[in-house]
Predict the 3D structure of the following.
Amino acid sequence: MQEMKIIQTSQEYITFKEQEKFSLFLFGSEKCIPCKALKEKIRAWNESHPQVFCGYVPLEENISLAAQENILGAPAVLAFVGGKEAIRKAGYFSLEEVFSSMDRYISCSA
């Protein structure tokens, strides 16, 4: 199974979100059970969507980045298309909705 890139700095996050055509970031905590489940689902989805860069932002090490992105809790997902925010979900949300939206962005760019 493809691993998610662990984002360790704000600069690394900015670089990936601006340089990748499609990027999806999970902001989470290692202590959060829903975050762990979402991480596994994103990894599995990414296997069939290798054109999407997927990153994991551990909140414990990236508090200022989370604040900058207005992430107030875990889990949260931000997705970007061409460096512009396309999807923002936080709290209780459906990953299937996120995945279907990403699929639409991907098919529109093909």
